[in-house]
Amino acid sequence: MRYDIKDVNSAKKGMVKIEWAKKDMPVLSGIASVFKKSKPFKNIAVGACLHVTAETANLMIALKEGGAKVGLCASNPLSTQNDVAVFAKKGENKKEYFAHLRKVLDMRPNITMDDGADLVSELHAFRKSQAKKILGGTEETTTGVSRLKSMAKEGTLLFPVVAVNDSMTKHFFDNRYGTGQSTLDGIIRATNKLIAGSVFIIAGYGWCGKGLAMRARGMGANVVVTEIDPVKAIEALMDGFRVMPMAEAGKIADFICTVTGNIKVVGLETFKNIKDGCVISNSGHFDVEIDLPALRKITKSRKVLRDFVESYELKSGKTVFILAGGRLVNLGSAEGHPASVMDMSFANQILAVKFILENKGRLSNSVHLLPEILDKKIAALKLCNLGIKIDTLSERQKKYISGWRNGTK
Ligand code: NAD
Ligand code: ADE
């Protein structure tokens, strides 16, 4: 099986979508055109488990142009855009999801490329012997990095992984501005509800939460933040948002959206007193943030009302709406982040693959940062493509800021 997709006839439409995304991915394209000549990935197989979108297709093409053999499956059962898929179908069940992961592992990758660490975790659980052939892996998202760090801490991680998420040109932009916009896009496409004047609860004031709060406020919502970290909570407060516990927030919520990477963030206590008609969604990596098993226990009936909108009529007589089955709403009911943001994330990915190859045998089996110089290079390339110029340090300034002798005069 060379591919397992929904409909091969949609490939033509997919190519148009891929070309459209490419127009906003100048940094990745620039790197790809250099690698097309130098072929740094010759004889390398990259096994990727990412959200299968038009932006990801451009990353795969860039890797192929650089000489790599690539295999791609989805990193979430609902995030696939069918017209650009390889081993992925939107709405695939658990059996298909893992069968697709195994298809990618069957190609015996030398590099893994993950979004959420499912591929690495599948390999460590069932294909340990394959780890010997693996030079390293890359990881796209916060939750994946956290899982990999936990493996490294346990001493069970069998190869080095570069935390692409932790590059500044990734999480400052993708997590913040990408998730900020695409999460609202997902909620709006699914419901067509007005955000202005609504009470909009955001669980988690990390990189994604900050972006979402900023954009929801921009659309006129009355934003409330819930947090468990006192520093993040006070930051949200000083950024001008109300802060309260989820159980309290649920009573006044028109919308709740979770972006924590944590489990059961909206749970039974919240459902019991929830505002009638509340729209609940999640943009964190896994579908565990809304406690759907607990919700089902207090539900009388369920009905699909629109694509990606399911109503839960509760025994209490209230109704709540769950979007995209509690899976990440921006990729479930919309198209994920805009290409111009993924441009920087995927420039990090492709440079991370090169970094692993250049440092073969030198990296420990732990989680590594991409060197800052590459991070800055991506930012500089993006600015250059946007036609923005910035100042450079003079020799005098360099000397001044690196010294200690110049104090009060
Ligand atoms: P982060 O670590 O910067 O922020 C998470 C925040 O959630 C932290 O401030 C933490 O204190 C808070 N938190 C944890 N448990 C909580 C709870 N029970 N209640 C309230 N707050 C809680 O992480 P991030 O980069 O913002 O990523 C968040 C999630 O979004 C992760 O799962 C990540 O993988 C995912 N993500 C999704 C997308 C997307 O496209 N949808 C993009 C990037 C990241
Ligand atoms: N994660 C968030 N948005 C994405 C996109 N457009 N493509 C791939 N991964 C993503």
TrEMBL record:
GO MF, one annotated term: adenosylhomocysteinase activity
Keywords from the named record: Hydrolase, NAD, One-carbon metabolism
Protein residues bound to substrate: T53, D115, E140, K170, D174
Cofactor info, note text: Binds 1 NAD(+) per subunit.
InterPro entries per the UniProt record, alphabetical: Adenosylhomocyst_ase-like_sf (IPR042172), Adenosylhomocysteinase-like (IPR000043), Ado_hCys_hydrolase_NAD-bd (IPR015878), NAD(P)-bd_dom_sf (IPR036291), S-Ado-L-homoCys_hydrolase_CS (IPR020082)
One Gene Ontology cellular component annotation held by this UniProt entry: cytosol
Ranges of residues in domain S-adenosyl-L-homocysteine hydrolase NAD binding: 175-336
Cofactor: NAD(+)
Binding residues annotated for NAD(+), in chain numbering: 141-143, 206-211, 227, 283-285, 330, 337
GO-annotated biological processes: one-carbon metabolic process; S-adenosylmethionine cycle
A Pfam match: AdoHcyase_NAD
Top-level taxon: Bacteria
Catalytic activity line of the entry: S-adenosyl-L-homocysteine + H2O = L-homocysteine + adenosine
Pathway: Amino-acid biosynthesis; L-homocysteine biosynthesis; L-homocysteine from S-adenosyl-L-homocysteine: step 1/1
EC numbers, comma separated: 3.13.2.1
Class of this enzyme: hydrolase
Family: Belongs to the adenosylhomocysteinase family.
NCBIfam families named in the record: ahcY, PRK05476.2-3
Protein name: Adenosylhomocysteinase
Organism whose genome encodes this protein: Candidatus Nomurabacteria bacterium GW2011_GWF2_43_8
Phylogenetic placement of the source organism: Bacteria, Candidatus Nomuraibacteriota
